[in-house]
Design goal:
Elements lengths: L2 H22 L15 E2 L4 H19 L24 H5 L2 E2 L10 E9 L6 H18 L5 E7 L6 H12 L4 E5 L6 H8 L5 E7 L10 H11 L6 E5 L7 H4 L3 H17 L11 E5 H7 L10 H11 L4 E5 L12 H20 L9 H11 L1
Parallel strand pairs: 3-4, 3-6, 4-5, 7-9
Antiparallel strand pairs: 1-2, 6-8, 7-8
Length: 374
């Protein structure tokens, strides 16, 4: 082996070790710091919505006025305020804190967790389809109840305002908005959002509306037929669409990266699951309680760690074909995020193989062991 190859191997190993150390420094799942935390119930707070609307109007008026001379040096990057006035001290002083509900018994049939980052345009479309479906389902089945948690992941636009306005217009008390002051990543949004769910079943769904929400019925049927002792995960899958126009007509580089990522996932991640990344996954409450306290990764590959933990805990997983369409406005950068996802996946596998990360056993198993001892 040449010296170049040896040095390259050592450098790569050093980089991976550095990444692993950074992950190891954080508990699982990492709690938000004081500057990040903003997990509050913002529903039906009219004064907050008015304040945000007033802010947007002042901002639009200010931007329409062209100054006679530039007041900011050319090339200076203007820092945006996340969510407009929703980060002001006056705003936060009126917030109603939420208590964690993930460890208690369910009080709703279904919780819907929607991670959202800069989704002012796409969120209303997705929410309308979701609400139309859920309201009709609740009308037909009086025992069915639901809640929707929009998790604003430190958005730089008016995602919070849009979600608040929808809650006010719909007059549904069980639409809640959880907001971060800093962006944590999609995985971080889902992990933290899970702490405030009250449903017997918990659905994770993307804010882009790429998946047809009515496919929830198919996931529920498969999940109920598969779950054991209240444990189960149903994964929405687009694997059946690989040869359709939705995939075939995409760019060569996009498809190349997709197939390459699937190969890496097969080698280092989950086997037996064809589509790990579809943002439409349904969990039983007990499965969510077992999986998410073990999570470490907050980036795009968090789905894979979710499924890896489920497999390690022998939680039944069923893959269900769903309808899907590509929606403009994706936040994924093909090259940068693909490289980051591959690195994260390698780090996940290394930490579990080396025993740095450990998975807490199921409570059910602990209870059985204690009964046997008695």
């Amino acid at each position: 082996m040449s010296w170049t190859a040896i040095l390259s191997t050592v450098a790569l190993g050093g980089i991976l070790c550095a990444f692993s150390i950074l992950y190891m420094m954080s508990p699982n799942p990492r709690e938000a710091t004081a500057s990040e935390r903003c997990y509050q119930d913002l529903t039906h707070l009219t004064s907050l919505i008015k304040e945000e609307n007033d802010y947007q109007q002042r901002l639009a008026k200010q931007q329409s006025i062209t100054p006679a001379a530039p007041t900011i040096p050319a090339g200076t990057k203007i820092k945006k305020i996340a969510g407009g006035s929703t980060r002001s001290d006056k705003y936060k002083a009126q917030l109603k804190p939420l208590s964690r509900t993930d460890e208690g018994s369910p009080t709703k049939t279904l919780s819907v967790v929607v991670p959202a980052y800069n989704e002012t345009e796409r969120l209303p479309i997705m929410m309308k389809e979701t609400l139309d479906f859920l309201k009709e389902k609740a009308y037909k089945d009086l025992t069915f109840s639901y809640e929707i948690l929009v998790v604003d992941d430190g958005s730089q636009d008016s995602t919070v305002r849009v979600a608040l306005e929808m809650a006010q217009q719909e007059d549904i008390k069980d639409i809640r908005v959880l907001s971060f002051e800093k962006n944590r990543g999609k995985g971080g949004a889902v992990i933290q959002g899970m702490q405030y769910t009250r449903g017997e079943y918990i659905l994770m769904v993307d804010a882009d509306g790429a998946t047809r929400f009515s496919d929830l019925d198919a996931l529920q049927i498969k999940l109920k037929a598969t779950e054991q002792d209240g444990l189960g995960v149903a994964v929405g899958s687009r694997a059946h669409m690989v040869k359709t126009d939705a995939v075939v007509k995409r760019s060569f580089i996009r498809n190349f990266l997709m197939y390459s990522f699937h190969k890496v996932v097969y080698i280092l991640g989950c086997r037996g699951i064809e589509d790990t990344q579809c943002g439409f996954k349904l969990f039983t409450r007990k499965a969510a309680q077992a999986i998410f306290p073990n999570m470490h990764v907050e980036g795009w590959v968090f789905d894979i760690e979710v499924l890896m933990i489920a497999q390690q805990l022998r939680i039944p997983i069923v893959e269900v074909p769903v309808a899907w369409q590509e929606i403009d406005g994706s936040k994924v950068s093909l090259m940068r995020d693909s490289i980051q996802m591959a690195l994260d996946l390698l780090i996940i596998r290394m930490n579990y193989i080396l025993g740095v990360w450990k998975i807490r056993p199921l409570r059910v198993e602990v209870e059985k062991v204690e009964k046997v001892k008695c």
